[in-house]
Amino acid sequence: MINELNRRDFLVALGMGAAALAIDPAETKASPLPGAIKPIAGSWFEFQHHATVEGVDWNPACLRFTAAQWDAKIKEIAEAGMEYLVLMATAVYYRSFYDSKIFPKWDMACANPLEAVLSAADKYKIKFFIGSGFYGNWESDKTITDPVAAKKRLQSMEELTNIYGHHPSFYGWYWPDEACINPRYTSEFITYVNTLSRLARQLKPQAQIMIAPYGTRIAIPDDEYVRQLDAMDVDIVAYQDEVGVRKSKVTETSAFYQGLRKAHDRAQKAKIWADVEIFEFEDEVYNSALMPASFDRVLRQLEAVSPWVDKILVYQYQGMMNKPGSAAFAGSPASTKLYSDYLNWLEGRR
């Protein structure tokens, strides 16, 4: 009998083999995009990390941030050359980060952290994607079909638009209940996406809509996958490289993104971005603190995906990067080294 580890390895290998067989190289050959290694264009962002054990090094600091410190953090990110921030959640654990009729508010030093970061983003020319979560159990696959959570998500979008829609930095929406592409999207996920996007187009017609699925390594970008891309009302798909969660190796990811690029070129609808994981787990995956990866590894991750994606976002600046002497420090001491190494590399490109 095949043991569980070998069984998983066999299924992953089988999925990758099927992906190769499903695509006619002569028909769908993708060409690398021009340019060398792409810089980091933006990052995910949060007021509290949803998995508390992972965010132990920055969650307490973020609770204590004043409005001035949130401003300083946004400025720091902008000065690092980043243009986009993706707010993971406007609520989590049944408490909100703004004045909502849906949930009571988090008790934070800053009375209105969402207003603080959007006002700062207006000043420093940062574009925010605002997340529609988490209005149910973020760990459950059933949340996207839960009618109670679905109603709350739509209600939150109307509230957020009414309160914060005037900010120039309110650039787009992000649907944070992530899909596993195994080996394609489920019909339930497509319904979840299109339901939210339908309202989003009414509330803010010019706003960009993004999703960031996982399962990148086992996706099969065949004809059916292209049809699914056509069926989903999104502007950007930012695929997780899954290196930080130890599902993929850096040496593998280029091939995954090349196949997905072919599918996007055929669909000619949603842009393809990367969600590069710049963390590593201190110990057990999903059950220990997130720590900054070495810059050597991060640079190899950026290099691997650069030929196939339009932009690279990272998960995530918060906790993993801090400017030395930051007035809004959140993360482990090692985060200053990753920041400094990246900024030195970035400056060397100019």
- The overall pLDDT, averaged over residues, is 91
Strand order of the largest sheet: 1-2-5-6-7-8-9-12
Approximately how much helix is present in the residues?
A: 40-55%
Which CATH C-level class is it?
Answer: Alpha Beta
CATH homology-level superfamily = Glycosidases
Rough shape? globular
* N- to C-terminal distance: 56 Å
Number of strands: 12
* CATH fold topology: TIM Barrel
Q: What structural class do helix, strand and pairing data support?
A: alpha/beta
**Overall number of domains:** 1
Quaternary assembly: single chain
CATH architecture: Alpha-Beta Barrel
* Alpha-carbon Rg, integer: 20 Å
| Most strands sheet | 8 strands, parallel, barrel
| Strand residue content | 5-15%
Number of helices: 12
Compact description:
This protein is of the alpha/beta class and 350 residues long. The protein is built from twelve helices and twelve strands. Strand 8, helix 9 (250-267) and strand 9 (271-277) form a beta-alpha-beta unit.
Task: Provide a descriptive summary of the structure in words.
- The structure is a single chain.
- This protein has 350 residues and is of the alpha/beta class.
- The chain has a single domain, classed as Glycosidases (TIM Barrel).
- The protein is 42% helix and 14% strand.
- The longest helix has 19 residues.
- The N terminus is likely disordered.
